[in-house]
């Protein structure tokens, strides 16, 4: 049956797991994904016939690429098309997510009958989208894009084991940004208590929370000024850097522009987990309402290495994102999207706790302080 309906649902970037299995090498994860080839030179046409099945017991996803029909002619001069099919489980576009069929010579109706296999748990699979693209192989030049289909698995019916034709779609223009490489996500709860509300809190609330900055005036034991509380709840789908597919993870926090040791906060280390739960609170004091618009909370996630330097796993920056701190242009006031939204929500609701799930950045860029 001709049913392209699965291909127009757009993928929402949420909850996407890390690379699967223990085979992941750090190098391939770090490799910046780049797609070479000619897009847009060939007018996309045709369909692809697939049979997708999933074996719950073994976690095997089998994509049987059967055939294509009515593909475009890629090489006008020779009137030839040498097609092959390439697969990724998005949003992972690293090398270990890539699968390919063999190349078929000179056919716009190629028969492949090849199975592309992945091993992935069902809960992870529900957060992925299968991207299959058809390409023309050119031995002497760049390969040409012949169309693609994207199948989100969040609502895929695996009971339906039949063959299905999918209409090939042209490439949607995507802004490719190395920073969009998926590194997992961090859940935090923010609360800003302004100076006037601070005094109304019972003293007991501050016990057991070390690491307050000394108040600006005097040396009172109760933190002075407003307080920023940051509860580092958990992370999901972090990169596994140790054999066995785990990491020993902790979160480090600074309130920029102050990146001195005195204001550095760290969570305890959670061993052997790519989905760690810390439930640890950082508190920064001495902040009035003007300060809160001029600072940036930088949180970075690390894997603890005993004999070498720790490995960076991703980070976020929370701020107004307007590029300016205390009247000076700075490149670390660069929050966007949910980072910026959550910070603004916190400013707009003083005294209340606001929670957000933030996608980790794959690099934090240079900080000019």
From TrEMBL:
Q: Where is the C2 domain?
A: 44-166, 209-333
Query: What InterPro entries does the entry give?
Result: C2_dom, C2_domain_sf, SLP-4/5_C2A, Synaptotagmin, SYTL1-5_C2B
* One Pfam family cited in the UniProt record for this chain: C2
Q: Where in the cell is it found?
A: Membrane
Record keywords: Membrane, Metal-binding, Repeat, Zinc, Zinc-finger
List the molecular function annotations (GO) for this entry: neurexin family protein binding; phospholipid binding; zinc ion binding
Q: Which GO terms describe its biological process?
A: exocytosis
Q: Does the keyword Transcription apply?
A: no
User: SUPFAM superfamilies per the record?
Assistant: C2 domain (Calcium/lipid-binding domain, CaLB) (SSF49562)
Q: Which residues cross the membrane?
A: none
Cellular component terms per the entry's GO annotation: exocytic vesicle; plasma membrane
This chain belongs to which protein, by name?
A: SYTL5 protein
- Which species is this UniProt entry from? Tichodroma muraria
């Amino acid at each position: 049956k001709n049913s392209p309906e699965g291909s127009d649902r757009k993928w929402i970037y949420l909850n996407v797991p890390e690379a699967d299995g223990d085979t992941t090498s750090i190098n391939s994860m770090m490799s910046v994904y780049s797609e070479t080839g000619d897009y847009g030179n060939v007018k996309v046409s045709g369909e692809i016939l697939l049979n997708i099945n999933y074996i719950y017991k073994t976690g095997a996803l089998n994509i049987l690429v059967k055939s294509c029909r009515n593909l475009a002619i890629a090489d006008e001069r020779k009137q030839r098309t040498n097609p092959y099919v390439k697969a990724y489980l998005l949003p992972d576009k690293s090398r270990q997510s890539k699968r390919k069929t063999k190349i078929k010579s000179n056919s716009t109706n190629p028969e492949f009958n090849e199975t592309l296999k992945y091993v992935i748990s069902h809960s992870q699979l529900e957060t992925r989208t299968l991207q299959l693209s058809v390409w023309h192989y050119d031995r002497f030049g760049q390969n040409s894009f012949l169309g693609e289909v994207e199948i989100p698995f969040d609502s895929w019916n695996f009971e339906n084991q039949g063959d299905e034709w999918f209409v090939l779609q042209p490439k949607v223009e995507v802004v490719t940004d190395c920073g969009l490489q998926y590194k997992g996500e961090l859940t935090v709860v923010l609360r800003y208590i302004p100076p006037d509300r601070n005094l109304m809190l019972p003293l007991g609330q501050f016990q057991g929370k070390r690491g307050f900055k000394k108040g600006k005036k005097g040396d009172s034991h109760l933190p002075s000024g407003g307080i920023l509380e940051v509860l580092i709840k958990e992370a999901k789908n972090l990169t596994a850097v140790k054999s066995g597919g785990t990491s020993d993870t902790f979160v480090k926090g600074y309130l920029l522009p102050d990146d001195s040791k005195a204001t550095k906060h760290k969570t305890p280390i959670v061993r052997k987990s790519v989905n760690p739960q810390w439930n640890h609170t950082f508190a920064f004091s001495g902040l009035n309402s003007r300060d809160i618009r001029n600072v940036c909370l930088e949180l970075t996630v690390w894997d603890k290495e005993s004999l070498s330097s720790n490995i960076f796993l991703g980070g976020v920056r929370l701020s107004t994102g307007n590029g300016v701190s205390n009247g000076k242009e700075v490149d670390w006031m660069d929050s966007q999207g949910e980072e910026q939204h959550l910070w603004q929500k916190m400013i707009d609701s003083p005294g209340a706790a606001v929670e957000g799930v933030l996608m980790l950045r794959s690099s934090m860029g240079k900080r000019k302080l």
